[in-house]
Amino acid sequence: MTNKQSKLSAWFSNYGVGYLFLAPFLILLFIFTIYPIFQAMGLSFTYYNMLEPAEFIGFSNYRSLILDDDIFLLAIQNTLTFACIVGPIGFFASFFFAWIINQLKFNNLFSLAFYAPSMCSGIAMSQVWLWFFASDRYGLINNTLMNIGLITEPLTWNKSATLILPVVMIISVWMSMGTGFLVFLAGLQDVPRDLYEAAAIDGISHKTQELFYITIPMMKPQLLFGAINSITSSFGVFDVAVSVAGMPSPNYAAHTIVAHLYDHAFIRFEMGYASAVAMVLFIITFALGRICMRIFREKN
Description:
- This protein is an all-alpha fold.
- About 75% of the residues lie in helices and about 0% in strands.
- It contains 13 helices and 2 strands.
- Strands 1-2 form a two-stranded antiparallel ribbon.
- Strand 1 and strand 2 form a beta hairpin.
- Helix 3 runs antiparallel to helix 10 and helix 10 (about 220-235) packs antiparallel against helix 13 (about 270-295).
- The longest helix is centred in the N-terminal third of the chain and has 41 residues, at about 5-45.
- It is flat and about 75 Å long.
- The protein starts with a helix and ends with a helix.
């Protein structure tokens, strides 16, 4: 056996079994994630309507997005506004409620009640919330406000260009806390109790001190996952906005990047243009994900 063959045999004996176990995941990752990204990147430089062969047009799609498409710029503004409000609120609310429930008795029951709504689809939950924000006098919020005399006629929650985006934000915040909450709760229960006992000997006795000096530093992996999950869900909002506001929303007030992508891809069949929208969204979420990894990464 040659030296090269012996090295290969030694590498396989050390790492080969592990890579064999990883192979199914890596194959599926390539087929359903990596390959579609490069496919969309290539299509973004073409005009492709699914009926004719793709025609290379260079950066025309990106130029049209930035210079000519006012609806896309409005979609970016709406999505950034949505993400800057819903993302942080959902992230901190998930952690806060997980921290509170972790200290309660019967926390499994409270955890189930808190997580259950996130198991339902966004469209189904939106229909429930539409009863709250119904634009007639029979909607729960309108009826309550009219009964206590704060308004004299119903507010058109899902038909007003001013009110529709805040309504979508409220629903999205409520729905976004389930997965992050469960991850944070698992992280809280995984913190060794010995650390709290040692901290108590050193003089830390208040729950807030334990939170900042022990809990948060020990939960950086869960915080990283929660931050990335909040970013992707905030920038990927679509089903809730469409279910509540319609397609398109009034004056495009709740029009998001994903809604713009869906419009050009599956209504107008402009797949090249939709791919350019998808690449812009990918770059934004990737950059923000890297920032989160830099903030929450473990430091040696």
